[in-house]
Design a protein that fits this description.
Elements (H helix, E strand, L loop, with lengths): L1 H7 L6 H17 L4 E7 L9 H22 L3 E8 L3 E8 L6 H4 L3 H12 L3 E6 L5 E8 L3 E4 L2 E4 L1
Helix pairs in contact: 2-3, 3-5
C-alpha cells in the first residue's frame, strides 16, 4: 500500500525521491537476505521532476530486479548503479549469483513485466545472464525534451 501512496504523491515527483525510495527498498530486501550490496547514485541530486507514471514504472522494474536477486540468484553480493544525465536515466542491477541460461529459462512473468514496462517508457532493457556468471539488468530511459504522461511521451 505504501508503494501506491508514494507513486501517486505529486510531492515525490523528483529524481531524488525515487533514488531515496530505491535505496530503502534495496536495503530492506537485500540486507534481510544477508546479501552485501552497494548502491551508487550519480547526478541524481539535480532537481529533475519525473511524472508519476515514469517514476512508478522505473521503480517497479527496479523492484522486480531486486526481488529476483533475493529470491533466485543465490548471490553474496549485488551492485546497483542509478544515474541521470540530461538525456536519460540509467539503472544497472548486477549480482554475482548463479545466473541462468536464458535459452532454458524462458520468459517468466517478472521478465515479461519488466519488458512491457520498459516498452511503455520507450526504454532499452537488457538482461544478461549465464549459468554461474550472475545476472545484470540494465535499463536506459530516454528523457530529452520530453516527459511521460500516462505512458505516452509528450513535449515538455
Amino acid at each position: 500500500m505504501s508503494d501506491i501512496v508514494w507513486a501517486i504523491n505529486p510531492n515525490r515527483d523528483h529524481l531524488r525521491d525515487l533514488t531515496q525510495r530505491m535505496r530503502h527498498f534495496s536495503s530492506d530486501i537485500l540486507a534481510g537476505r544477508n546479501i552485501e550490496f552497494r548502491f551508487e547514485a550519480l547526478d541524481t541530486g539535480r532537481d529533475v521532476r519525473l511524472g508519476a507514471d515514469l517514476r512508478r514504472q522505473i521503480f517497479l522494474i527496479f523492484k522486480e530486479a531486486v526481488n529476483n536477486i533475493a529470491r533466485h540468484s543465490g548471490c553474496s553480493r549485488a551492485e546497483i548503479e542509478f544515474r541521470a544525465d540530461r538525456d536519460s536515466i540509467s539503472l544497472t542491477v548486477r549480482d554475482d549469483g548463479r545466473g541462468f541460461d536464458r535459452a532454458q529459462a524462458g520468459n517468466g512473468h517478472g521478465m515479461l513485466s519488466m519488458r512491457a514496462r520498459a516498452k511503455e517508457l520507450s526504454a532499452l532493457l537488457e538482461i544478461e545472464s549465464a549459468a554461474g556468471q550472475g545476472t545484470t539488468v540494465s535499463l536506459r530511459v530516454p528523457l530529452g525534451r520530453s516527459r511521460y504522461i500516462g505512458g505516452k511521451k509528450v513535449p515538455a
